[in-house]
Structures are given as structure tokens and as C-alpha cells.
Amino acid sequence: MTGGWLGRAGRFSIMLFSAAIASPAFADVPNCELESGPARAVAKVVDGETLVLDDGSEVRLIGALPPRALDGGAEEGMWPLEAAAKAELERLALGKSVELAFGGRRTDRYGRLLAHVFVRDGSNRFWLQGAMLQDGHARAYALPGNTACLADLVSAEAAAREARLGLWAHASYEVRSADKYRELLRFRSTYQLVEGRAITVSDVRRQIYLNFGINWREDFTVTVRPRHRRAFDDAQFDFKALEGRRIRVRGWIERRGGPLIEVYHPAQIEILPEHASPDLQP
């Protein structure tokens, strides 16, 4: 194994898989750097990721993606896992004092604040995203320009995924196989975790392609655009060392010939041990 990021990535991968055992209180404090924001109270919970504060502003829990009806092909409002995530968010945050913190772009196109939220409950203070992820009520994700805490989010999620808590016990959220490229196309525009072996890695004018089959026009592909290379360069990420390795990738499935996931942060790629993953869909 080469040095640089991949040397650290091996240790990073081990850390991810051991997080559930070593860090039962992970929701307390993420390790990422955040900029402090205002302290408010939660007046309403709209859904499994959206809060309305006492000043009327809306907050989207950046990094914690709750179940949605689309995930299971259900009608809006008829997906039990969606209702369960909202109920859990109400239990954790409704009527509580919260502190906001920011790790990148502060608003989305709807004007909602993109914030990490810390709940103050008496003498206790906990990270709301971490709590939702640890209990299996959300999946870890990031958006371009808002990736500061993705490694912490993925680590918090790992505990629930390994224990098959919440959404992880449901077939709609199983980890997908990169080999089943035709099936992956059925999940176009949805957020998925995909596992497989990277057959080849190419760098075409600083755009990276991880190919999971010999026919790149049909097989599953992962790509990193040049504008997102800085995060990987800063981490000394060695893409070529991924050739022949089993990896897990997270993101939204697109169709560009075959199914494709675009990544923009190293934590979207997990290096896996060589034995079969218990998460992988058979």
C-alpha cells in the first residue's frame, strides 16, 4: 500500500468500522471545524430533516438524510420510515433550545439554513445529526460546498448500519452491488450506497473515473470532477492505489451511459476489507 492518503485511508476505514463499538456517545461532539451560529428554540418539526425556529427561520439538518417516500416507491406521506424519522426528530428537538453551527454554504435554494444543530437539554448538549444517524433514522451525505463534517457523519452512521437499526433493517436501504449495473439504473436520482471492486482508475484532464467493469459505457462508474479535486489533493488521496480494491461509495445515482455516482469528498469513498461485506445486497 502506498503512502499519503491511502495509508491514512486504511486507518480511516478501520476507524469507520469500529466507531459503533468505540464511540457509543458519538453524537456528543463531531471533530470537524464549524463556525458558531445563533441560539434559538425549535417551534416546529416539518419532516425528518427540517426544523422551524422561534424566529420563523427554517433549518435543514445538513448531512443527515432521512427516509423519503420516493425511497420505497410509496405515496407522499405514506412511508412509515419517513413518519418514524419525523417523530424521532420531534422527540429530540421540539421545544428545545438549540445552537446552530455552519461548515460551509449556509442556505439552500429554498432559503433554509444548512446547519449542524446542537440541542441543549438541561445540562446535556448533543449533536442532533449524530443522534439521528446513530439510531438509524438518517443516512450520512454531503453537498458540494458543505462537506466539512462528512467523515464524522459517516462514522456516526456506521453504528446503526452494522446493527441494522432503523432504516438499515429495511430492504429499500440495502447496500447495492456495483456488479448489478442494470439494476442500479432503477435507482436513478436516488441516494444509494454501492459496493464493488474498482477495476481501473483513469485521470482524464484531472477528471477521475473509477470503473467497476470493463465496459465503461454500461458498467457502474464513480467520477470526481476537476473542481472537486482540491479536497482529495489536500488529503493526499492516491486514486491509482484504489485499482483492484473493494470500496463502498455513497451518493446520488445518475445515468451517463451506465449508472454513475459523482463524489466530491474523500469520505464518500470507504476502503473495505477483502472478506464479503454483511451490508451488501445478495
Which range does the strand content fall in?
25-35%
What is the overall number of helices? 6
Q: Could you tell me the mean pLDDT?
A: 88
Pick out the low-confidence regions.
Answer: 1-26
CATH class of the largest domain: Mainly Beta
Structural class based on helices, strands and sheet pairing: alpha+beta
Q: Would you summarize the structure shown here?
A:
The protein has six helices and 16 strands. The protein has helices at about 5-20, 80-95, 130-135, 150-165, 180-185, 230-235, and strands at about 35-45, 50-55, 60, 65, 95-100, 115-120, 125, 140, 175, 190-195, 200-205, 205-210, 220-225, 245-255, 260, 270. The strands form three sheets. Strands 9, 10, 11, 12, 13, 14, 15 and 16 form an eight-stranded mixed beta sheet that branches. Strands 1-2-3-6-5 form a five-stranded mixed β-barrel.
Can you describe this structure?
This protein is of the alpha+beta class and 282 residues long. It is built from six helices and 16 strands. It folds into two domains: 135 residues, OB fold (Dihydrolipoamide Acetyltransferase, E2P); 98 residues, OB fold (Dihydrolipoamide Acetyltransferase, E2P). The strands form three sheets. Strands 9, 10, 11, 12, 13, 14, 15 and 16 form an eight-stranded mixed beta sheet that branches. The N terminus is likely disordered. Helix 1 packs across helix 4 and helix 3 packs parallel to helix 4. The longest helix has 19 residues.
Quick tags:
282 residues, alpha+beta, OB fold (Dihydrolipoamide Acetyltransferase, E2P), 2 domains, eight-stranded mixed sheet, five-stranded mixed β-barrel, 6 helices, globular, disordered N terminus
